[in-house]
Amino acid sequence: MRGQLQNIEGQDYSQSNLDAVPNIDFYLNRMSDLMNNPVIEEYLSHFECPVCYERMAPPIHQCVEGHVICNPCFLRLIICPKCRSKFSEFRCKAMETLYKNVILPCKNYSKGCKFIGPGDVHIGHESNCEFGDK
Ligand SMILES: [Zn+2]
Ligand SMILES: [Zn+2]
Ligand SMILES: [Zn+2]
After folding, report:
1. Are 120 and 107 a contacting pair, CB within 8 Å?
2. Phi and psi of 98, rounded to 5°?
3. N or C: fewer beta carbons within 10 Å in the chain?
4. What's the CATH class of domain 21-128?
């Protein structure tokens, strides 16, 4: 484990590259560590739709009490499955912004997909992911 960490830290992310967006290798090298991190696991759990357990992606909806729900479930249901309130006409912008900006593994990670990147890159990837449900 220690050796592995040193390996990652030992790579050349020189000063001139600090302003650049890290390339995909940067994320890949960190993915296995990330996915074993309970904080990340907790973070990802907030993107799990409480109804279908799929990863939520924008548009992310919410009920008037603030419970979030994925778009397909929102379109299918008429009341919040958690509190039975009606849905809000406002989407959950905070979750949508988080999704777009934070680095996430592909939702098919557990099936073997190695893709990782900011959420708005995911929207394109996941609809074509070779590990996804066909
Ligand atoms: Zn859902
Ligand atoms: Zn609710
Ligand atoms: Zn994928």
Report:
1. no
2. -60, -50
3. C
4. alpha beta
| DSSP reduced 3-state for 9 | helix
Q: Is 0.85 topped by the overall pTM? A: no
How many Å lie between the centroid of ligand 3 and the Cα of residue 81?
A: 29
131 vs 29 pLDDT, higher one: 131
User: Which ligand sits nearest to residue 80's alpha carbon?
Assistant: 2
- CA–CA distances in Å: residue 10 to residues 14, 25, 61, 124: 11, 14, 42, 32
CA of residue 128 to ligand 3 center, whole Å: 8
**What is the Å distance from ligand 3's center to 127 Cα?**
8
107 falls in which pLDDT band (50, 70, 90)? confident
pLDDT of residue 66: 95
Q: Are the C-beta atoms of 43 and 113 separated by less than 8 Å?
A: no
Domain range annotation of the chain: 21-128
